[in-house]
Recover the amino acids of this structure.
């Protein structure tokens, strides 16, 4: 990859790019369990089932470990910013303990897999910190340190860190880890294949019929019959559980630059301040470390492309770490559940054989490993772990308890679904489009998403997201149409980049 191309690519994908694709299935077939999605949650589930002797097929719409997991910052931690004090208040002390235990066991389990399979994935044991520079956050941090310690983590409140700038305070949790997620998952993929598992790329699933057995239908018309199905597509591509009412998408940008090892801070850091700032380093060539900084979260499709957030984040990084020569930059997307706990288990109350893993809120590595173990136990009929109820997607009480977040999310969706259709909010006409830009305009009485490529040619697709019909907006920096309601993303020509949408935007003539 050229230097210029790398600047716009994930470091994990640049250092371990996809090899030859695993072709879609040649025809209809049967399998014990079909897993939709080949990220951390999907591959962890497939690995757990394969090692217990079950026939598994993984169906991935794009490339293995190249989606959300391929764009993570790759922290493997049970410290999830300011979660434990919230859980103590909303789920009680026992709920917080179960959350901490499930996430900690996921880290230990990953370490065991790395040892068992001999995976070279830049694994490093380190501490995790949630910090604040402003003193008004100190009471929050002290409460979080107390709650995390009460939940069973090795947590403490500190005022000194290895960051090159002062902090007002931080919660320090020892015995966490960081690694190269694609090296880990591609090794897991090899182990799945060695155990008899099947993996298919470029295989988008469009239909699901629940029953005994379940039947999946792919974009090519292939029918996959399975005793059980796991939907691990980051954002569920099937809406029968109405989980889209309980998930809020957010997008964040990432900048990375090599720094001298002597100047690289030890540990993993995050702060809720400044639209979030996450800092870690990774091994790099020539005796250096790669500084990875994440933050500036925004709602996809909100009309704000990632160009400004990239500039803002780079400015913050240079202000705190000195002049940087960026080697990579990319963006990542996460989904927050309205009660701040992932949804892992049976898809909806009537489901018997269809499971889901979603809503990891930016912590999908430990969450995905946890989900793989939990779902494997439920599918195989083993005794479910004690935290299965905590993550159960069918839960109602916690959602009602934190109803404010649920209502705000629905209000935001309604605002876009209705407000974006008002004439006053329609963006400029075709003559105003610069090369590389896009806008929603009226053509023949219909709203069209029009993009002008770098050669000046215009390309038009329907502006209605194929998920639930919200109007998309253009992200110039990433050259993508994005839905503000549920986070679906499409290329300028309309093909799906990221779900929950599974069908492309319809082509339009101009």
């Amino acid at each position: 990859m050229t230097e210029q191309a790398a600047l716009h690519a994930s470091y994990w994908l640049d250092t371990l790019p996809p090899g030859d694709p695993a072709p879609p299935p040649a025809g209809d077939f049967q399998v014990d369990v079909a897993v939709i999605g080949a990220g951390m949650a999907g591959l962890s589930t497939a690995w757990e089932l394969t090692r217990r002797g079950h026939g598994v097929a993984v169906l991935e719409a794009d490339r293995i470990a190249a989606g959300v997991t391929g764009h993570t910052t790759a922290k493997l931690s049970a410290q999830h910013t300011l979660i434990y004090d919230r859980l103590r208040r909303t789920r009680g002390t026992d709920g917080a303990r179960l959350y901490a235990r499930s996430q900690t066991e996921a880290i230990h389990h990953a370490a065991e897999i790395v040892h068992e399979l001999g995976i070279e994935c830049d694994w490093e044991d380190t501490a995790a910190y949630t910090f604040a520079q402003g003193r008004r956050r100190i009471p929050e941090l002290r409460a979080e340190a107390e709650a995390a310690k009460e939940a069973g983590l090795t947590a403490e409140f500190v005022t000194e860190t290895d960051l090159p700038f002062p902090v007002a305070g931080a919660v320090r949790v020892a015995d966490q880890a960081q690694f190269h997620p694609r090296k880990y998952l591609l090794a897991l993929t090899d182990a799945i294949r060695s155990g008899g598992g099947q993996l298919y790329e470029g295989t988008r699933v469009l239909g699901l019929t629940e029953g005994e057995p379940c039947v999946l239908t792919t974009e090519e018309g292939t029918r996959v019959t399975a005793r059980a199905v796991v939907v691990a597509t980051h954002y569920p591509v099937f809406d029968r559980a109405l989980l889209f009412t309980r998930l809020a998408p957010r997008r964040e940008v990432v900048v990375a630059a090599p720094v001298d090892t002597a100047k690289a801070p030890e540990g993993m850091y995050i702060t809720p301040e400044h639209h979030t700032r996450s800092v870690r380093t990774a091994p790099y060539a020539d005796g250096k470390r790669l500084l990875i900084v994440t933050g500036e979260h925004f709602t996809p499709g909100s009309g704000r492309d990632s160009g400004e957030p990239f500039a803002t984040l780079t400015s913050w990084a240079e202000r705190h770490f000195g002049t940087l020569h960026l080697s990579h930059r990319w963006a990542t997307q996460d989904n927050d559940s309205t009660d701040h706990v992932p949804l892992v288990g049976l898809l909806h109350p009537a489901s018997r054989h269809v499971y889901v893993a979603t809503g990891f809120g930016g912590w999908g590595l430990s969450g995905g490993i946890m989900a793989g173990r939990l779902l494997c136990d439920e599918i195989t009929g083993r005794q479910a772990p004690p935290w299965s109820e905590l993550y159960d997607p069918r839960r109602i009480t916690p959602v009602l308890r934190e109803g404010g977040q649920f209502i705000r999310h629905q209000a935001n969706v309604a605002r876009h679904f209705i407000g974006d259709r008002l004439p006053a909010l329609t963006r400029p006409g075709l003559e105003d489009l610069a090369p590389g830009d896009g806008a929603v305009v009226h053509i023949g009485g219909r709203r069209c998403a029009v993009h002008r490529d770098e050669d000046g040619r215009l390309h038009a697709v329907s502006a209605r997201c194929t998920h639930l019909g919200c109007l998309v907006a253009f992200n110039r920096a990433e050259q993508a149409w994005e839905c503000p309601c549920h986070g679906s993303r499409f290329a300028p020509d309309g093909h799906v980049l990221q779900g929950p949408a599974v069908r492309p935007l319809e082509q339009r003539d101009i």
In short: The mean pLDDT is 90. The two ends are 36 Å apart (CA to CA).
